[in-house]
Amino acid sequence: MVVNLDTVGNRKLALWGIIIVFVISVSLRFWELGRFNELVFDEVYYAKFANNYLTNTKFFNSHPPLSQYLIAIGIWIGDRLPIGQDTTNTLASSLHSTFSYRWMNALFGSLIPPLVAGLAYQLIQRISYAFLAALFISLDGLFLVDSRYALNNIFLIFFGLLGQLLVLTAIKRTIGYSQLLIAGAGISFGASIACKWNGFSFLIGVYGLIGIAKIWRIVKSSNPDLIYTNSLLDRLAKIRTAHVVLNLIISPIVTYSLLWIPHLIQNPSPNFIDVQLAILNYHEKVGNGTEIHPYCANWYTWPLLMRPLAYYFKEYQPGYYYDVHAMGNPVLWWFALAAILGCGWLIIKNVCLIDNKLTIKKEALPTVQDLDINYLSVPIFVVVNYAANLLPWVRVTRCLFIYHYMGAVLFAMMGLAWFVDSWLRSSSRVWQVAGLTTIFSVAASFVFWMPVYLGLSIDRATLFDRLWNFWIFNWI
To answer: Which of 145, 311, 317, 446 has the greatest number of C-beta atoms within 10 Å?
Structure first.
């Protein structure tokens, strides 16, 4: 029996599911946010840098400044709130509550699941797919951990996703597209890059999709007998080159440059050009290998989750520990890797099919539906963006960490959600069971590893059940 997930009742249920996912995401990110009254991992940089803006202290940062602006705003507001004042310290060079320099990350991290839901819905207008995409990202440990501390990865992910959502929303119109939303996307992409340079990968993904769409339009126009359709590519192809240049090239550059102004007013030397060169020089000089950092992880180890990163570890009494591991949900990541490979295979298979059909007359085709590749919108979108967020790291020689994979794995999870949604809609009971099994397996895995996501009290035996150190895994 085919399960109809598009009935009014099921659509309302999926919408409520997205709301519940958002509420749970907020709860997990804000729960005991002041836990560990100290600077955790790179908070030793980012919380201090944010405080430097509040105290007008000159400093050099090896990343662009937007993340630190946002954390600084969070500190200024948080210190004036009646909550989160039970734990304070002077580790950032001024007296602040731990809540004050973490809550802005928690807020932006909480908004990522609904952003992903919006992105998924704009792709194929299936609320069930939007729910599953939001659910999977909310069940990932690395996104949870990075949302609970004053770090910068969550901000670049947020603005990168927002830019892509604005692009997809802009092209949704049957005729034309919204130039205002495209302009907003360019500003958002510029903000992502102003958090960390690898925020540019989200923009590379859009460039790739538009390039493919332009080629797609040429192929269709030069082959009048070709009746394939793909709404994503057809709509992206409508974006004029002039608007791409203005809104997706010039606008991000201008936005990125303007966001440096507050920093440069406080730190006039080095100037704008010199500080970009200084950042580049800094990262080029960072070495690689365990002698540089014990948790260095090359890019090819990320998809299999071979080397996660310990953010915090403390034995607070004999045999009992607090451990915060920046690691993905293992079951989710491995399923997501299989999904991105499956999406790639579907694209290759159908591109070959198109090539074989180019010379066939319309009258010889059994039905238009046989050549409808509109369902490939999701695979094309996730594969292009996955590649855009992963491949630039291949040639990077400095020490890398598992969190550099966050942008790529996000799209792999969207690919997995698409497969699961398709399985749940299948007429085969086997595929329906496979879809449900995948969901419950991912949820169970998240719960199993939650102690090392939230830094809960854990005994030695239980800790080592969750930190594997065998075969290709080195999680300790």
So the answer is: 145
